From TrEMBL:
Coiled-coil zones: none
GO CC terms: plasma membrane
Protein name (database record): Cardiolipin synthase
NCBIfam families linked to this entry: bac_cardiolipin
Length: 495
């Protein structure tokens, strides 16, 4: 035995070298089999490239971040919810669309229902709010009218000077006996540590039940969950009668980050206030998220109730999406609408990193004569995404897409799309691969020309605060920046 040990010591460097190369080759071979399984070719190639160049680094990263699937216990909950939603959907007919809407809008309604099991509802009212502080004040005012329940869900939620009145309104109603339930994303909230802790203390002090969504607790749900699977929705529902949803988080417009304050950054948002039957559908979506985090199944009769206000004229449909769904619901809807457009597409997205199918849909629309406008920010708050989206500008401009850069120091964080004069999609979903694959999102499809008038006013205000990007200007940007953009585009494919 001593002779064998001595031999190992004498040849240790050689043995370690052989072991290193054996592991290196084994990881490469395993990656060739495992990585391409049920994955987009672009994503598979990006992962394989990372693993082939640095196997001992790339493969562990793939195990950590390579799967967008929820862990087993969460998948089981999702299956329960999906089954209940489809049973409910079978007994609820869609509302009738106006006679003047194009035939393709009905097919979009059927697609949404097949994907998310939410019906099209009629007789809704909807108003837009683009003022950051004004929307928080309006939500707080609505909360103070609550008599029965207040349901709150935000990706980022914290207690600071901007949100003090809203949180105070929640506390007031809870003290008055109203049932208040609050959800906030674990990573989104905890990344603003001081505001997050202050919020939790305030909610606890008033007996408000609250939970972090998608908590980062490895293996607790029966399997490892990659940490960047997030709940990105933003909703407030009061008594099942008033609903708010859109792009805005419940935090100050500079997100309480010293770097943002130094740069003078602040966020521009678009929120929609809803009344009518659609509010119950929004409340039902909240109830599914509440079930995931609390294991409490809220009684349907307390969540879905006949609306006392059916004086509105808008047809609305909730479109949920996220890693719990088999299909990429938001991507499927966007692409269907882009290919259906005959006159005009206006897309607003702070993070625009499309997959191949969406890029093809937009370019095809522009080349067949559809007027396509894309609103993005002149500056970015996320280095990788900002530079990745810039890599798409050349091909879009060459195809005839008009790109508007919202002027610094504001980050245009709104997320909405209008098609012709027929339909609007507004909500929390960006047009990037993360929103399609990794984040739970909530979108709202609104049909009809009346609501489009309000949307055109918002688009006009954005256009007035933006400058148009010209192709010749873009071609003259420094080669180093071009290289950074293209490198970030490659990295963004690793999902």
């Amino acid at each position: 035995m001593s002779d064998l040990w001595q031999w190992v010591l004498d040849h240790g460097v050689l043995l370690l070298t052989y072991a290193f190369w054996a592991v290196d080759i084994l990881l490469r071979l395993i990656a060739l089999v495992v990585v391409p399984r049920n994955r987009r070719p672009g994503s598979a190639i990006a992962w394989l490239l990372a693993i082939m160049v640095f196997p001992l680094v790339g493969f562990p990263l793939y195990l950590l971040l390579g799967k967008s699937q929820l862990p087993r216990r969460r998948r089981e909950k999702q299956q329960v919810v999906n089954r209940l939603m489809r049973v409910r959907s079978q007994s609820i007919p869609d509302s009738d669309l106006d006679e003047d809407v194009p035939s393709w809008l009905q097919s979009a309604v059927r697609l949404n229902r097949q994907l998310g099991a939410f019906p099209l509802t009629g007789n809704n009212s909807a108003d837009l709010e683009i003022g950051y502080e004004a929307s928080i004040a309006a939500m707080a005012a609505d909360v103070r009218t609550a008599q029965h329940t207040v349901h709150v869900l935000f990706y980022i939620m914290g207690l600071d000077e901007a949100t003090e009145d809203f949180v105070a309104a929640l506390a007031e109603r809870a003290d008055a006996g109203v049932t208040v339930r609050v959800l906030y994303d674990h990573w989104g909230g905890a990344s603003h540590r001081a505001q997050y802790r202050a919020l939790r203390r305030r909610l606890d002090a008033h007996g408000i039940e609250h939970y972090p969504m998608m908590p980062i607790r490895p293996f607790r749900d029966g399997a490892f969950q990659r940490p960047d699977l997030r709940n990105h929705r933003k909703m407030v529902i009061v008594d099942g009668e008033i609903g708010w949803m859109g792009s805005q988080n419940m935090i100050a417009s500079h997100y309480d980050k010293p770097a943002n304050i130094r740069r003078g950054l602040h966020w521009q948002e678009t929120m929609v206030r809803l009344r009518g039957p659609i509010v119950s559908e929004l409340n039902l979506l909240f109830a599914t998220d509440w079930f995931y985090e609390s294991a409490q199944m809220l009684p349907q009769e307390t969540v879905v109730r006949p609306s006392p206000d059916t004086s509105g004229s808008y047809e609305c449909q909730v479109v949920p999406s996220g890693p719990g769904f088999v299909a990429e619901n938001n991507l499927a809807l966007f692409n269907q609408l882009f290919y259906s457009a005959t006159r005009r597409i206006v897309a607003v997205s702070p993070y625009f990193v499309p997959d191949e199918s969406m890029l093809a849909a937009l370019i095809t629309a522009a080349r067949r004569g559809v007027e396509v406008e894309l609103f993005v920010s002149e500056i970015g708050d996320q280095f990788l995404v900002f530079h990745a989206q810039r890599s798409y500008y050349s091909v879009l401009l060459e195809a005839g897409v008009t790109i508007w850069l919202y002027r610094a120091p504001t980050i245009l964080h709104a997320k909405h799309v209008t098609i012709d004069d027929s339909v609007t999609v507004i909500g929390s979903s960006n047009m990037d691969i993360r929103s399609f694959l990794l984040q739970m999102e909530c979108s709202l499809m609104v049909g009809g020309t009346d609501f489009m008038v309000k949307m055109r006013e918002v688009e006009a205000s954005y256009r007035a605060s933006s400058r148009r990007l010209e192709l010749e200007e873009w071609k003259r940007r420094p080669r180093l920046k071009q290289a950074v953009d293209n490198l970030c585009r490659l990295a963004s494919a690793v999902v």
